[in-house]
Amino acid sequence: MDSGHSSSPLPHHRLRAYGTALAFLRAVQDARIRDRELRAQALRSAKSVCLNIAEGAGRVTRADKARAYTVARGELVEAIAAVEIAHESGDALREAVSRVLALGAALYAVLTKLVH
Q1: Do residues 1 and 17 make contact, with C-beta atoms less than 8 angstroms apart?
Q2: CA 102, 104, 107, 111 torsion: positive or negative?
Q3: Which residues contact 6 (CB under 8 A, 6 or more apart)?
Q4: CA quadruple 10, 104, 77, 89: dihedral, nearest 10
Q5: Top-level CATH class of 35-115?
Q6: Would you list the domain boundaries of the chain?
Q7: Which segments in the chain show pLDDT lower than 50?
Q8: In contact, 83 and 35? CB cutoff 8 Å
Q9: Which pLDDT does position 28 carry in this prediction?
Q10: How many Cα neighbours within 13 Å face the side chain of 105?
Q11: Each residue of 9-38: pLDDT tens digit?
């Protein structure tokens, strides 16, 4: 999932995880969560995943990178849970939930590797 910036000198553009995070954000948006507060929480968390991955890519020390990727992983799980809760409440598009779960699981695995 290329973010479309493969020739960019910016470090987050070289991370596949960043492109996957952007796809995850689009999937959360596509879930069309009707509950305003839950939608805001899901989108805020999904955006935070992207931002923390970018921050981690820009950090120098292994510990700083791991901290940012750990935060991204926590925000990822929160965004997934918000979409699942919206679905269980009848407030999200069913067909979008499976894409959120698939991208979320893949991104969780990548972030776990980046943390360790």
Answers
A1: no
A2: negative
A3: 13, 14
A4: 130
A5: mainly alpha
A6: 35-115
A7: 1-3
A8: no
A9: 98
A10: 5
A11: 899 999 999 999 999 999 999 999 999 999
